[in-house]
Amino acid sequence: MLLVSEALACLGQGLTALSGKQHSYGMMLTSRSIYGAGGELIFMLQALYTSLWFSDDKLELALSICAMVPFTFKILAGVIYPRVTMNAEDSTSRGIEEASLIGFYFCITSCFFAIMLIAVERSIPVGDDPSGMHRRDL
Fold first, then answer.
1. Disulfide-capable partner of 34 in 12, 63, 89, 94 (CB 3.0 to 4.6 Å)?
2. In angstroms, rounded to a whole number, what is the distance separating the alpha carbons of residues 40 and 19?
3. What is the pLDDT of residues 21-45, one digit of tens each?
4. Residue 83 pLDDT > 90
């Protein structure tokens, strides 16, 4: 499920970058919807993985840190994207394309880390989980 959500986010961001290049508003709306669906799934799966990995007394801290990381990247994007857009050689349109591609590269990086998480999860021996959840099913 994690790879599906990552694939949706990457596909949506990639199509958003492409729609900016083609100046297609309809395609941009569709691609942002795909990206949003993938991003929401990632957010829910992140909370699920965190609750499986951490005990009750550490869960609040772990969830807070997990929520802080995406917001930190949003702040960085707010600083980086305008500078990329303004420093484009050709025009503002070219800068928007470059900023969208940076977002796509972040999605690809996130997909790589999701694959690493799945590899770590599969290396953990599956025992009797009192919640009835099996990590291999994620």
1. 12
2. 22
3. 788 889 989 998 999 999 889 888 8
4. no
The token pair that represents 39 in the structure block: 């991003």
Statement: residue 70 has pLDDT above 70: yes
Q: For residue 112, give both structure tokens.
A: 């790589």
| Alpha-carbon span 4 to 8, nearest angstrom | 6
Helix (H) or strand (E) holding 75: helix 56-86
Cα distance between residue 124 and residue 128, in whole Å: 12
Contact (Cβ atoms closer than 8 angstroms) between residue 12 and residue 38: yes
| pTM for the whole structure | 0.71
Using the predicted structure, report yes or no on whether residue 131 has a pLDDT greater than 70: no
User: Residues 10, 33: contact at Cβ < 8 Å?
Assistant: no
98 contacts: CB under 8 Å, gap ≥ 6: 84, 85, 88
Nearest C-alpha neighbor of 35 from the set 8, 56, 6, 65? 8
- Residues composing the chain: 138
